[in-house]
């Protein structure tokens, strides 16, 4: 069975993420969405909340599973018996960083390859950070995230008193 991992923070999951998920899932037998618990960041959503949202928005994709992880990505890939890491590229600045990470991961674990997919043009500008900033100022984020995610963002920001 050919397994790939699409890792990220997904805080929150956007249409750009879903674009990469939908396009990479048919390339493998199983696509594992690895939800990173990154201690260096202060996320809007907990890992559990992000996993739940991703499960909701990918429920129609039969070969996609969502798994939280922390630590080194290549260690997670070995644990999940994955041979490939999928990364999305929006711009040349993404490529520089992602190339460095891919080379480091390959040095750490030569059996795991990294595959890059360019994000569809309609989502090339989109990031989770932009979504959160627009939501913070009560902007319309319906073009950026699925409805269920939009509602969760509003609820979370209202709970934290972060909507202006």
UniProtKB/TrEMBL annotation:
The keyword Chaperone does not apply. Substrate binds at residues 9, 41, 73, 87. Residues 5-133 form the Cytidyltransferase-like domain. GO terms for molecular function: ATP binding; pantetheine-phosphate adenylyltransferase activity. It holds the Pfam family CTP_transf_like. Belongs to the bacterial CoaD family. Pathway: Cofactor biosynthesis; coenzyme A biosynthesis; CoA from (R)-pantothenate: step 4/5. ATP binds at residues 9-10, 17, 88-90, 98, 123-129. The gene is coaD. One of its GO terms (biological process) is coenzyme A biosynthetic process. This is Phosphopantetheine adenylyltransferase. It is an enzyme of class 2 (transferase).
